Amino acid sequence: EDGHSHILANTIPNCITYDPTYGYEVAVIVQNGIERMYGENQEDIFYYITTLNENYAQPAMPEGAEEGIIKGIYKVKTFEAKNDYKVKLLGSGSIFQEAMKAAEILSKEYDIKVEIYSVTSYNELTREAQDLERENLLNLDLTPKTAYIEKILGSDEDSIIISATDYMKAYSEQLKPYIKGNFKALGTDGFGRSDSRANLRKFFEVDTNFIVYTTLAQLALNGKIDKKVALEAKNKYEIDANKINPRNA
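That's the Pyruvate dehydrogenase (Acetyl-transferring), homodimeric type sequence above. Prediction below.
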C-alpha cells in the first residue's frame, strides 16, 4: 500500500504528479512532460507518475480528452438513467475501475444517472485552483477567473460528488474548497498491509460496493432518496458499521 506518496510529492513545488488509469493517459502525460522539460522553454520541473500492474481493458481515448488529462480531470462516460440527482463519481488509477463498476450498478440497479470522471492529478487541479484564487484576490477590479475543476464539474451546489483513490483521503480532499456541491472522499488512510487487491480495497473502503453505498448514503442525507434504500444497500453489500476504522486498524 502506498497511500501517501502523492501527498509528499506535492510538497515539492516543481514536482508534477499524476496517477493515470489508462495507457493513453500515460502517453499524453509523458509527451507533455517531454515538451515541457526538453522543448523550447525547458521548464525546471520533474515528474512523479504512478503506474499500475493490474490487468484491465484499455479503451480508446475519448475525443478531446488531452487537455483534461494534462490539467487533471476529464469525463469518461455518462451512465444514463431515469433519476438525475447530479451524481458524479471521480476515480483515479486502479480504483477508477471500481468507480466505473459502481456507476454501472447505480445506473442499472437504482436507475440513477451517473457521470464518471478520471482524475489524473488532484495535485495539479488544486495548484491551478489556488493560483487562480490568489490571482482573483489580487485583482478585485477584474472579472474573477474560474478554476478548471469548476469548469468541468459545474457550479451546482446540489451535486453529489464522490471521489475514490488508492491514496489517503487528504489527497482528494485538498480540492474540496474548489468543488461546488456535496463532496465525499474515499481513501486508504491507515497502515499498509499485504493481501489481495479485492480484500485490500474492501478493507480500506474504496471498493465498488462501498462506493455504491456511499453514493446512496449521500443521496439519502441530502434528501434525494429514501434512507431505506441506502440501508438496504448497506445490508446487501455487507457494509459493517461496527468494523474498526481502517486508519486505526
